[in-house]
Amino acid sequence: MVRFSIYVKAETENVETLFFNPDEYVWNIMVKCANCKEVYDNWQTLCKSVTKPLRVGRGYVHYSSKCKFCKMENSIIIMEDSMKPYDGNRNDFQPIATFECRGIELIGIRPGGGWIVTTKRNNSTFTDINLDEDYVEYNEEGVLSILDFECQVRRS
Ligand SMILES: [Zn+2]
Q1: Which residues, at least 6 apart from 57, have a Cβ–Cβ distance to it below 8 Å?
Q2: Which DSSP letter does residue 25 get?
């Protein structure tokens, strides 16, 4: 079992925190088989509120698949309490979640939609933001922006 953490970084203006609903956020991930090292063709999705029972033993996982090349089964669990908001007051890579992976490796992530921003000036909230592209919003508080959103996967 190997743990991978997702780190993000962005150039922000008027952003106090950048987060998502931990139960509803849909993760778009790129993976490779830990056994034969084959990279999966498509983005895979998982969500903390969607669980599958383990085929062997007790418990549940958030993702499971069978490698189409070597036929090994693998699974991922989004670790309880690992999801944390990004602090817009800092401009460095910060961990936002950790996945426990069995037989599979996390190699990439795409931010997608469902992000929630809390602003510095009025502490207002903007929801359902898609960070696959730069986000710029002009409102009564001035400008709110999230630029150059970067994601990194690190083995932890
Ligand atoms: Zn494989």
Answers
A1: none
A2: P
Residue 19 sits in which domain range?
A: 2-155
Its pTM stands at 0.93
Please tell me the total count of domains within the chain.
Answer: 1
| C-alpha 26: how far from chain center | 8
pLDDT at 55 > cutoff 80: no
CA of 30 to the centre of ligand 1 (A): 14
- Burial of 84 per CB tally in 10 Å (0-12, 13-18, 19+): middle
Query: What spacing in Å lies between the alpha carbon of 126 and ligand 1's midpoint?
Result: 41
